[in-house]
Design brief:
Length: about 350
């Protein structure tokens, strides 16, 4: 076959490729659906809407002027998932669905294991039964536990310091065992650092149900005067300004990393399991984030210095070089862009999707 013909056949194959996105109505999932549709993939979403609204998916369709299929379903319902995979002729799965609040996982460990690990098992069994063996999984930098040093490479030691982290580590292990047992699987385990930001249109974004635990959504709500002031958890860490340092990554860059991983998997022979950090490789302190947010959005963010938060580490940022080497992907958007897009989403949707 000539090179041109091979290219055309490949483009045709890609454009018809059906991707099942679990948890697709959520924060990262909705941005992923948007980019998948833009790239020409067909998208089927399964979400039980425990932490999301289907309005996010309507907005995705409006933004990209293409349709997706949404099925309100729980991934633990293995037989239904199987039917969906067969009916829609799914080729690959991107698995975002899960519960993600660290504090809540400490309070309700059984629910977290049941939903996250139980859900992953049902999904993987359904995939196996249907012969669908291309998988991308949302893991987290939380699997590095309390990192000894940053930047963190994929080979750093792993540990779980809360039930949420244990569920991520368990699912990673399950995926590796499946790949080892069956040479038809291809998988990418993506370890996210701190996703923030929103699509620049301000039409989709992060919509926390209660008072946010994470820094960026807390800042946007203080800036909107929905919350009075931000508590900065500790200014006596061993970091340049004493406040915690993290690797914030724009959600649009993060989902581009998934598209790169999907293209990579589809072009690899089976029996491939890759584990990749998705971060910028740049550390940013709490005070730096506040200052950048204030400057780019021309708004004050009142804050006070508070006690350290239990379980926090001083510094945590990625060595992002493997993602570039393997996937030819790197984050493009800077902290200013993250602050601008987060605030645009919040001001346009003061009550989220409600
Ligand atoms: P999110 O809560 O916005 O999205 C998760 C989606 O999964 C929600 O729409 C929820 O309704 C759905 N869901 C949960 N359990 C389900 C089930 N049993 N069946 C069907 N649907 C179910 O969270 P997010 O921020 O978009 O995170 C997506 C994934 O990325 C999660 O697995 C999370 O652990 C992981 N992750 C997130 C972050 C972060 O900071 N946001 C960081 C690292 C990893
Ligand atoms: C938290 C989770 C982690 C999860 C990640 C992404 C904990 C202990 N860790 O990480 O498992 O993978 O979210 O979802 O919950 N901060 C403040 N004031 C605030 C909120 C945060 O000063 O009101 C500081 C924190 O001390 C930290 C930084 O901001 O230094 C970032 O915090 P956060 O957004 O919660 O993310 P992580 O702690 O990195």
């Amino acid at each position: 076959m000539s090179n041109i013909l091979f290219f055309l056949v490949n483009v045709e194959r890609m454009s018809k490729h059906q991707v099942l996105v679990t948890g697709g109505a959520g924060y990262i999932g909705s941005h992923a659906c948007l980019q998948l549709l833009k790239e020409g993939f067909e998208v089927v979403v399964i979400d039980n809407l425990t932490n999301s609204s289907k309005i996010s998916l309507q907005r995705v369709e409006e933004l990209v002027d293409r349709r997706l299929v949404f099925v309100e379903e729980d991934i633990r319902n293995e037989k239904e998932v199987e039917k969906i995979i067969r009916f829609h002729n799914i080729g690959s799965v991107i698995h975002f669905a899960g519960l993600k609040a660290v504090g809540e996982s400490v309070e309700y460990p059984l629910e977290y294991y049941e939903n996250n690990v139980g859900g992953a098992l049902s999904l993987f069994k359904a995939m196996k039964n249907c012969g669908i063996k291309n998988l991308i999984f949302s893991s987290s930098a939380t699997v590095y536990g309390i990192p000894e040093k940053s930047p963190i490479t994929e080979n750093s030691s792993l540990s779980a310091v809360n039930p949420y982290g244990s569920t991520k580590l368990s699912i990673e292990k399950i995926i590796q065992d499946i790949v080892n047992s069956d040479n038809q699987w291809r998988s990418a385990i993506l370890r996210y650092f701190n996703p923030v930001g929103a699509h620049p249109s301000g039409k989709i974004g992060e919509d926390p149900k209660d008072i946010p635990n994470n820094l960026m959504p807390y800042i946007t709500q203080v800036a909107m005067r929905k919350l009075e002031k931000l508590s900065v958890y500790g200014d006596d860490y061993d970091t340049p300004d004493g406040t915690g340092v993290r690797d914030y990554i724009h959600v649009m860059d993060l989902v581009d990393g998934h598209i790169a991983a999907l293209h990579y998997l589809l072009n690899q022979p089976p029996k491939n399991n890759v584990i990749v950090n998705l971060g910028t490789g740049i550390g940013c302190s709490v005070l730096e984030l506040i200052k950048t947010f204030e400057k780019i959005n021309n708004i004050e963010v009142p804050y006070e210095i508070a006690e350290r938060r239990a379980g926090d580490v001083a510094s945590c940022y990625a060595d992002a070089s493997y993602a570039y080497e393997l996937l030819n992907w790197s984050a493009k958007r800077d902290i200013s862009q993250m602050c601008k897009d987060s605030f645009e989403w919040q001001t346009k949707n003061p009550n989220g999707f409600e």
